Amino acid sequence: MDFENALKTFLPAQRREPARMVSLDPSIPGCGWSVADPYHLPIEAGIRAERERLRGKSWMVALIERTLDYEGIFEEVRLDEGFDQLLRALNRGRELLTERSDAAKALHPKWSWGERRVRWPKLTRVAGQPVHCLEDFFIHDGVGWGNHHIQVSVIALPSEPIDRELIDAIGADSELQAHFRKVGGG
């Protein structure tokens, strides 16, 4: 029995329409994101909520956290607080890095410190200002099966807080969409 006949035998005959993809370009012009309908709704709601929250601020603290262990690879992007002053944003960035690195050390107390220099965010300037990358935090299990990497940056906000330049700087599209989905209630 060939594969197609096996599928017909074991799977019920259903005709499913392909998912309708919805462009998120109206929300973030030029982003190039498409999401299956209706999963775009919480992402769009999250984009609107983040724009409102960050509107009028000059700087934003952003975090990317990557974990590799026997369960898989997990990556999370978080757009933290917005600030009017760079110094306050840098202080919050250091505080966030300490919070997340302490949590990672508590979760993996026997792991070793390591050196990891991955460029994030992907752009060095946003809204005409330099991106301020804080010190990376990286621990690993010593055998290559597990590691935890945290990076925090302070990024200038454009006049429209969530735009293509900011999206391009952060770079982790699916993780950023997950952040917006979470904020938007999805």
Explain what this protein looks like in three dimensions.
By secondary structure, the chain is α+β, with helices and mostly antiparallel strands. The protein has one domain. It has five helices and ten strands, in the order αββαββαββββββαα. The chain has helices at 3-10, 40-54, 86-107, 164-170, 173-183, and strands at residues 21-23, 34-36, 59-69, 72-83, 112-113, 125-126, 129-130, 132-133, 137-140, 147-156. Strands 3, 4, 5, 8, 9 and 10 form a six-stranded antiparallel beta sheet that branches. Strands 1-2 form a two-stranded antiparallel sheet. A two-stranded antiparallel sheet has the order 6-7. A hairpin with a 2-residue loop joins strand 3 and strand 4. Helix 2 (40-54) crosses helix 5 (173-183). The model has no long low-confidence stretch (mean pLDDT 90).
